[in-house]
Structures are given as C-alpha cells and as structure tokens.
Amino acid sequence: MVQAEDCKTALKRLDANDIDVVLSDVKLPDGSGVDLAKEIKEKYPVVEIILLTAYGNIPDGVQSIKNGAFDYITKGDDNNKIIPLLYRAIEKVDLAKKIIRLEKQLGEKYSFEAIIGQSKPIQVAIDLAKKVSATDATVLLTGETGTGKEVFAQAIHQASNRKKQNFVAVNCSAFEKELLESEIFGHKAGAFTGALKDHKGLFEEANQGTIFLDEIGEMALELQAKLLRILETGEFMKVGDSKPTKVDVRLIAATNRNLPEEVEKGNFREDLFYRISVFQIQLPPLRERIADIEALSSFFLDRFVSKTNKKIKGISKSAMEALMLYGWKGNIRELRNAIERAVILSSEDEIQLSDLPIEIQQSTFVLPQKEFSAFELAGVEKLHIQKVLSYTNGNKTKAAELLGIALTTLYRKITEYGIE
Known about the structure:
48% of the residues lie in helices and 13% in strands. By secondary structure, it is α/β, with parallel strands linked by helices.
C-alpha cells in the first residue's frame, strides 16, 4: 500500500508505482478529491478511485461519478462498505487489464507486422493496405483463392480508427440467396416461414466497425442492388421491414473473379463494381513470391509442432527445394495444409521430402507432354530464371550463383527474354 498526503504527491506516487485503486478523501490540503479523480482517470484510465467524505452531498457525489470515480461514500456510516467496495474495484481493474491484454494480442495477431513476407510483390500490397487503412474508403482485395485476403482485411481493420469496433466477415458463396439476404441485412419476425423473431443482420453487427464480404462476385444481382444502396445512403431494408435501418459501416470486399469480365457478362452490376473498387489491392499468388516460402513454411511448422508436441526442428534441404519448385495453385492455404500433413507424418527431427504430398515430391515445371521446340525450351529457361530471381528477391549476383552461370550471361538472358 502506498500513501500520499496531498494531490501533488498522489500523482507522483501513481507515476512511480503500479497502483490499481485509489482511496481518497474529498478534502485535501492542495485541492479536491473530486477534481483529483478526473485528473487520475484522464492519465490512468484503468485506475479506479473511491472518494470518502465526512459530509456527503448530492452535487459532489454526482460530479465524482461524472469525473470517473468508482464510488463516493460517507465516512462513519459507510465504513463497513469500504472493504467490499475495494474488492469490487479491484475486480473491475483486473477485468479492464485483461481486456487490454486481449486487445493487444488481437492487434498483434492481425496487424500488418503479422503478415509474413519480404518479397517485393507482397510488400507492395502491404504498403497500399497501410495507406488506405487510415481512411474509410471501400477496399476491394483481388487475387487467387488462398492468397490471404481475409488476413489483409483484418490488418486493415486493426490499423483503422474502427479497430475497437466489430470486424464481421461473411463468405458470400457459402449461402443461398435468400439465406444470405437474411444473414447480411437481417429480418423481422414473420417475414418468412421460420422467422419467429427479429434477427439482427451482419451489417447491424458491424455498425461503427468493418464488414468483410468475401467472394463478393458470387452475390446475386438482387442483393447487389441492396448493397449499393447501403454504400450510397448508409441505409438498408431488413427482410419483411417497412422502414429503413441506418448504419455506419466500412466495407472491405474480396474476390477471386475477374469482376470487369463479370460486368460484361451481366453477372455483376457495373455501378457496384465502380463503388467497391475505390481502392483496389491485388494480392500476389505464392508462385510470384518464392522468396517468402521458407519463412511461411517455418511459421506453419512452428504452429503445428506446438500443437502436436513433436520435436521437429526444421525442414530438410531437399524438402525445402521441392516446396520452392512447386506451383502452389492453392497458394498459402495449400502450403499450410502441406506443412500440417508433413508434421503429422514426420518421425524425424526434420521434415523430409517423403513427408510432403506426392505432387510436391515430384515438383517440377509443368510442361506439355509433347516434343519441345527450341522456342518452348527457351520459355522453360525464362520461367526458371524468373523463379530464381524471385527467390533472391531480385538479387542478380546471387541468382547467377544459384543458376551456375556468369553474371554477364544472366544479364544477357534477362535482356533476351525481356524479364523485368
């Protein structure tokens, strides 16, 4: 327990010590405990203050609570209340500290710093995402399945001024049209068979926060019209409702479809496309960021080793080479699954080539099953040079060493094949 004789000393004690609860008289030599409560809460929001007074009055009590005091009690009559009150204040502080720790862990888990990769393609995407995070602009994330679009959406939300509010994610391809409409916009009781009570939709759940619509290209045209209205007016109609509901939500959308092509085919509204693509970020496929495969593999290895309590220390050279040569049509998600499988199968202290799926063990460039012309073989060589340059993150000296050719030869081939 720490003691202080006046306001000035109390603030110094708070600076120097980890204090959870302050028990203070209202009348102090150099000021009022009511004013002190306000100053303490502004500087130390988690700290709780209990004020004691010999002559309680309603105005002081009201102002104390407004200034953030936990309680305001009268000496003498309320002495038996102090100990239980202290315990309740400590419980409130403990809960507040726990929430802060959880928020910090959540922020670290979903921050941009948690996105693994130093290759140029992923860094370009991260830089763009960081710039748009501070705004309320609608973001469209494009890229193949498994490239980490939801991870980016979470990071954008965590870096925004909405981070303390809800982040709500929904996969538009996972629901039938009618069910998706009810899930996103909500419904009133009796709107359809089985609607026994009012249902709050995901847009309402995300109010003041962020909603992430994954696979937005799968959304039915009728729902696209309702989504456009929200983006333009901030209002929508629940299923079976006669009056609009107003929300303030930031939208992040994602798709692996080519939306301009879908617009041409009549599958996606042109006005909605222009509305959601205010700020577009293309996420690179894993085959274009070979330099990140080793770091990603190590990350997933650590995760699954921890879950299985196995004593696996790393990945063998032959296994890592196969991982880097493989085409990764399923991108990061496929890599994660491959490492999880390897950890389950492994009986050694390193992941071996034989622990990987057979298609990865046989990693090679996918070539047509026919005789090759000189032109086609040149294409294979160009692809191999591109892969090695991606692995070295553009370092041509290192790439030449790995390819086993002179640096001048590498420059000549880069020029010859038009490699950027």
